[in-house]
Amino acid sequence: MLEARDLHAKYRSQLRPYLEMLKPKKYELSDEQWMRFVRKTERHIVNVPDQYLIDPAKGDILKLSIHNLFTEFLHEMENIPNS
């Protein structure tokens, strides 16, 4: 079984296209709407991981890995101003 940091790297590369698609919405939505949209996307990935990930882990490790990826993404996006 992969360790948490290995899963993080694996999922980051698999989810990169989806995270990239979230970025333009930051400029189209209010901050609150954008945050809801991002968290809704996160929940959807956790609820149906087979649609987004190849060979996803099961249970809490999946949830934690996805949550950490989205937290990292949001942290990266903090410094990008909303138009």
Supply database-style keywords.
83 residues; 0% strand
Average pLDDT score:
91
Helix content: 55-70%
The class by helix and strand makeup works out as mainly alpha
Tally of DSSP helical segments: 4
Let me know the number of strands.
0
Distance between the termini: 43 Å
Q: In angstroms, what is the radius of gyration?
A: 13 Å
Instruction: Write the element-wise H/E pattern from the N-terminal end onward.
Output: HHHH
Assembly level: single chain
User: What's the story with the biggest beta sheet?
Assistant: none
Uncertain residue segments: none
**What general outline do the C-alpha atoms trace?**
elongated
Tell me what portion of residues adopts beta-strand conformation: under 5%
Would you kindly provide a written description of the structure presented here, covering whatever features stand out?
This protein has helices at 4-22, 25-28, 31-47, 60-77. By secondary structure, it is an all-alpha fold. α1 crosses α4 and α3 (31-47) packs antiparallel against α4 (60-77). The chain has four helices and no strands. The model has no long low-confidence stretch (mean pLDDT 91).
